[in-house]
Design brief:
Radius of gyration: 16 Å
Mean pLDDT: 95
Order of helices and strands: EHEHEEHEEEHEH
Largest sheet: 4 strands, parallel
Distance between the termini: 16 Å
Strand order of the largest sheet: 2-1-5-8
Shape: globular
Helix content: 25-40%
């Protein structure tokens, strides 16, 4: 049997209703193009860490370099410790992956597009979600892309990089 590269993907991009609002963000490129060439491995850090569906929305806050995950609408919510604990063990479970497709702007999965708020002001929109930060730190050579970067060149470059990473 012919093996295909295994690529992690933010589960909501597959159409699963795992987002904070109980909705999905199905992405046709993931479903139609990447699904044809890769074995996709769904990951939803917030659900896997034990947060429910639906759940209060969270955002990155307090610090750009080591942000907290706090409630977007209720600042008393802080799930930083829950997500950090999850991020301590989950990357090791994903060492078999050859790439990762992240959900943009997500406080967990955004690759380079997540806003950070300090004192209710957005200080940057180019930060990395807590889980994306853990994966890219653990595997700096792992090809990664977020869905807001999908254009023909980026998609083809990502596919090529995954197949290079897949080589024994």
């Amino acid at each position: 049997m012919h093996q295909r590269p295994k690529v992690g993907v933010s589960q909501c991009l597959l159409g699963d209703a795992v987002r904070y609002d109980g909705q999905s963000k199905a992405n046709q490129t993931v479903l139609n193009k990447f699904h044809q060439v890769f074995d996709l491995v769904p990951v939803c850090p917030e659900v896997e860490a034990g947060l429910g569906i639906p759940r209060p929305p969270v955002q990155l806050s307090a610090n750009v370099d080591t942000p907290k995950l706090t409630g977007r609408d209720d600042a008393s919510i802080d799930v930083t410790d829950i997500m950090q604990k999850y991020c301590q063990h989950k990357p090791a479970e994903l060492q078999h992956l050859h790439g990762f497709i992240f959900k943009s702007r997500s406080p967990s999965c955004g690759l380079d597009s997540t806003p950070v708020f300090i004192n209710d002001l957005c200080v940057t929109e180019n930060s990395r979600g807590v889980f994306a930060r853990a994966i890219t730190s653990a595997y700096p050579q792992l090809p990664a892309i977020e869905e807001n970067a999908f254009d023909e060149l980026a998609i083809n470059t990502f596919i090529d990089a995954v197949f290079i990473h897949f080589q024994p």
